[in-house]
Fold this protein.
Amino acid sequence: MIDAEKLNPETALLGHTLPSLLSDACNLRPNATALNQWTDAGWRSLSNRAFQMQAESLALGLLDLGLERDDRVALLMSSDVNFAIADMACAIAGLIDVPIDLTQTPETIVLILKQSGSKALIVSNLDLLQQVIPYLDPLKYILLAEVPEGWRSNDPQRLYSFDQISCVTHSIDRVNALYRLLSPQDLATIVYVPGADGEWLGVMLTHESLAGNALAAFAALSRLQWGTAEISLSFLPLTHVFARCLIYGHFYYGHTIYFSTANRVFKHLQEVKPTILATVPLLLERLYSKTLEQSEKLTSKRERIAFKLALQLAKRHQLGQSRIDPLLQKFVARFGFSRWRSLFGNRLKYVLCGGAALKPELATVFAAAGIDIYQGYGLTQASAVVSCNRDRANRAGTVGKVIQGVEVAIAPDHEILVRGAYLMRGYYQNPKATEAAIDPEGWLHTGDLGTLSTDGFLQVTGQKKALFKLANGKYVAPHPIQARLKRSPLVKDAIVVGAGQKVCGALIVPNIEALQHQKLVGDPATLLKHPCVQRLMGATVDEANCHQPYWAAVKRFRLISDATNLTELTKETRLLYSEDKTQDASDFNLQELDCPILAVEACPTFARSLNPRFTTS
């Protein structure tokens, strides 16, 4: 390795399969309410042993259908207990699961099914299946996790429910034979991630890398207890490897897991009162903003001033300190910061935050209120976690220290490089992309820029890769939508932005000559504000958004005169995301305008995201 600032690893935690983590817990740490699923009738509980038996029954059923070891099984499922059962069943059977994000378009789903060579697809329910069934002809088997009472398959040779294929009275000998066939080096999953140019890359992860990463991440949390003392509320998508890593760790530790959803998480925090919560910065930012808004509504001027003083004191709090300054503690108690803890259920020990950058002041203020937030860093290609903050080693603005078994280096161009036993085997059937990602010395080139402090804290400072990450933790490849925008004769240049933001935006340089051909009169500066130009560009953006999942679509845009000046681009991006995002059109009489109409093609159903009504609950 050429000159690089480097941090050496501790011994990796190897030798485990995913089913072995569950088996150890069932034998040593039985939990009668290990997995809990929200239903209309309330919480439905499963013991870890009952969960294991259901996964074993489904594993045998999948093999009895005709699937064989190393066959790929795609999962188009909600992030609930059924996903966990299907995932573990595939692991026990020696099958390789391929989770697909529910917000994708049908055309992307079909592409992933084809690229992965999946022979079967497991779908959560009939409503979800109806949206994709027209595109599933090549599949050999389709399975439904849940069906209405009395449901009968209209395609009995291909379409089944879990209940139809699960071996309810299965042989212990058959199950034990499956366990004996498993090896830690077996491929467990292929997770598809976007490439820089919008292509899809299948990240191959083994049992050993996933299990080892989960155990190493949990080992970093020194106050974590074994067994039923710890309760986790899970609402992040299980299609993301970070959320799955945490589930595997909870299995092994014998913890209790409650499966929630993003639109119910605050309600369930009050009910469940978890000790562990994994989240993305967006949820914490919403809570923080809401609290600041409420403080502005305080009726007493004295109270408003005191709240601001308390906030200033809170921002001085140092993460990792076991004691809060007495003056700060007094203000915190008086002016409602303690209510933040009640919003989280009053029992939280760990708030694990990943997926996107967290503002340092949020981590500091929440810690002063008694809510410790531990930010981490990771990638799908590294089986989830690379580094994390922890107890007395928690520093705002950083993503902590590397976990056991991981090695990090900072290259001369400041790119973060990662090496260790938890790295992906490579990209499925794409040796060229694999070679570009992992160099001959085994270093994964993350595409992220960063620094490493002398005492081992990693800080992410920017990105080298063309992808950017939204506040919800999802990656966006800007090149494809930029290319579609530039196909329009009205667009000279376009830059898609959105790193750390809630939505994607675009800075667009209009083609002034083309606009003038549309009989729009005015100098370039005037045309940038012209309502007709804004309307034409809005239609252009709508057309370019076709083929994008809804969260990656451009939701706001700003017209600019030049896309080469970096300082101006930074300024325009700030204006784009300011509260008043509309460009001034006060010089125009909207009633007198006769705007030209841009003919746009309707976006076909297969190029639009699945209906959120049926993909979230």
Remarks:
- The longest strand covers residues 444-452.
- The first helix runs from residue 18 to 28.
